[in-house]
Design goal:
This protein is α/β, with parallel strands linked by helices and 259 residues long. Helix content is 34%, strand content 19%. The protein is globular, with a radius of gyration of 18 Å. It is an enzyme of class 4 (lyase).
């Protein structure tokens, strides 16, 4: 698939958010566009999975959706709790209040997750990677499209687990977010709302305002492919610094070499 995409002309973008600037690359393939935006601390192996996810909509496309829209979580209804100490994590969760309907635990030890789960009343989710060691330590599998290598690969991981899942949105632009929504729309069951949606998109997106994915009445529409970037918006957020562009180009090629 990588031979169908010109990495050396792919536009690099930078979008300001309240958490800092988020960067990435847009890939133009024969079927459309994709977004490559792994976290800055990702190694090349993880970046390769993000690249597979970015190339999926622009080459082979996404699998068919089973729902036309996806419920988006209210940020107030979700919490992410790092588990360094089980007692401290339980205390924090107990203090969140009744508005929270799902807590994602960030933890490297499935045993600690299970210990927290036994002591709280709210459902707990963990990243799907941790469930490989103990699929019964949590109530919900948290899926991330980019880190799992795209919609198809994420669905295969979900099918092996046989437990409820929720999609954590990781896209930076509406092009990347469309992949997150496509994954959620393809899951056979979706007992929880997904997200939350990026709050910066209304002002910081590379597609036209009419195509920006902003929740309406608590939902985002599922689409068979992402919107194409708008030339004016893309120019607004394009990275022109030669060193930054070269860094992203080099990362793309290193990731592609691992595919």
């Amino acid at each position: 698939m990588r031979t169908l995409i010109d990495f050396d002309s792919a536009p690099v973008f930078a979008v300001p958010t309240r958490h800092g600037v988020r960067e990435g690359v847009l890939l133009d393939g024969p079927q459309g566009w994709g977004e490559f935006s792994p976290p800055a601390d990702a190694d090349d192996a993880l970046a390769a999975r993000w690249l597979t996810a970015a190339m999926e909509p622009s080459t082979v496309g996404w699998p068919d959706a089973v729902r036309g829209r996806v419920a988006v979580a209210d940020p107030a209804a979700r919490a992410v709790v790092s588990v360094v100490d089980v007692d401290a994590a339980v205390t924090r969760i107990d203090g969140l209040g009744t508005a929270v309907d799902l807590v994602e635990l960030v933890c490297a030890d499935a045993g600690d997750v299970a210990a927290v789960r036994r002591r709280v009343d709210v459902p707990v989710g963990v990243d799907v990677e941790l469930l490989e060691s103990d699929p019964h330590c949590a109530d919900v599998a948290v899926l991330r499209c980019g880190a799992l290598g795209g919609v198809r690969r994420a669905l295969r991981r979900f099918e092996r687990l046989g437990m409820p899942a929720v999609v954590h949105f990781t896209g930076t632009t509406s092009i990347g977010l469309a992949a997150d929504v496509a994954l959620a729309a393809a899951l056979p069951d979706l007992p929880f709302a997904c997200g939350p949606a990026p709050e910066w998109l209304p002002e910081g997106d590379v597609v036209s305002a009419a195509r920006t994915l902003v929740p309406a009445q608590g939902y985002l529409p599922a689409a068979p492919m992402p919107a194409a970037p708008d030339p004016v918006k893309l120019a607004q957020f394009a990275v022109s610094d030669p060193q930054a562009v070269a860094r992203w180009r080099a990362w793309l090629h290193r990731a592609a070499a691992l595919l």
